[in-house]
Amino acid sequence: MSLLLSSRGLHTATLATLYSQITIPHSRIFRKFLSHISAHPSLGTIVRRLDFSHFNPTGAGQTARERAQTLNLIPATLLQCLSLTPNLREFLAQEHIDDDLSSDVIKYLLCSLPQLKAVDFCACSSTNFRDAFNSVISSPQLPAYLPITRLSFHECTILPSTIYETLLPRLKHLTHLDVAHTRITSSALSSIPHTAKLTHLNLSKCSHLVGSDVVDFLTNHPAAKTLVYLNLAMDAKSHEMLTPEDLTSLLPVLPKTLRSLNLKGSKMNKDHIPLLLPLTKHVEELGLGRHLDLASITSLFAPPLPTQDYEDEGDVEEEWIPHTLRYIDVSDLSVAELDLSTLFGTSCPVLAKTSEPLEVVEVGADVWKKVEKAPAVKRVGWCGKEAGRRGWLVRVRGQEGGDSGARDWKWGASYWGMRKIPVARAEVGGMYGHYMFKR
Asked: How far apart are CA 327 and CA 416, in angstroms?
């Protein structure tokens, strides 16, 4: 605060630092912030981001009912806050405030903030939230065009498909779309304007989508030509989206801009490995589907052995191009399919030094139980790490250190295996970190 008193220049710069990006960890901080911008409206014009991703309703020793009674963060005060931040560009919400997202709040976000570029409703799934959204999309006040370019409904399981069918055609410049585990339909997906240029798309666990329609969208829609992150992972126990035929059609047409591709839950076979090989020359994250085995995976990391046929015919085999994979998800493979005795053996290249730059191998729960404390992991130069429901084998680095994992396309995240798309450049934590790396 002493900088505020040093000079006018420092005073202006300090205010911009303090107020441009506001993080609200609990309701008392929200009340304090609202009081400040109410007393000094000029401060509200500095605000560019309202971040509730770290919000904890019990963090200040209050239950949700007690919080409502204090009138700190309620729909009326949240609406007042939005009205005092006219230059807001990023609004980051999550499930702990979904009951505070009234129809008036949502309407204000969509209709009254012309500079708003990013909105995240991560895991908002209360009936009040659903009813509020339904009310807004049927309103004649909803503009034909929305300025939002980055939108996340990650795990908003309760919203009907009409929400996406109404909103997506209005997003002419959409770049980031996360609709994981929602009721988005093929018609809603295809309604994305041709002027959009998607770089990040998460369709994970979308059981209302048809695999062939998704392949058609990714093949023919102009908005899908510059993808960097694509998540098509499914829980095969509940729904299968991509068939072997879908994969055969999809893999050759994926853009070279791609850096992260998740096909977990898809129905793969060894015939898909040659189609995956070109992708491993530019993709850094790869999630594999079911029904593969260790031999299939090995061929992604090492050139095939020369055959007698080639030697007899005098042909020259195609030059081997090293892979770019830093992370591979093989959590769909069982203990038998992964063949642990061979995986940790000296003849297998997957965990060998020759497989670099590979840093992380994600395994399923049954495999994790086997390798979590196995001495063989340390012997081959790796270690086990876990978070939430996930377990990884991670290459041990010496004093030289390893790849930090930070990438421009991750928007602030540094770990590998991101399952939620960030819509704002920020350090990952709170509920967003939970949905990105622990589920």
From this structure: 6
Q: What share of the chain is helix, strand, coil (3-state, %, to 5)?
A: 40, 15, 50
Q: Are strands 360-363 and 390-395 parallel, antiparallel or unpaired?
A: antiparallel
Q: Tell whether the model's pLDDT for residue 310 goes beyond 80.
A: no
Residue 298: strand, helix, or coil = helix
Between CA 196 and CA 233 the distance in angstroms is: 23
8 Å CB contact between 93 and 122:
yes
Query: What digits encode the pLDDT tens for the residues 341-351?
Result: 999 999 999 99
Q: Which of 329, 300, 322, 327 is nearest to 403 (CA)?
A: 327
The pLDDT tens digits of the residues spanning 387-405 come to 999 999 999 987 666 778 8
C-alpha to C-alpha distance for 368 and 234, rounded to whole angstroms: 20
- 135 Rama sector, left if φ>0, alpha if ψ -120 to 50, beta otherwise: alpha
CA separation for the pair 283, 265 (Å, rounded): 19
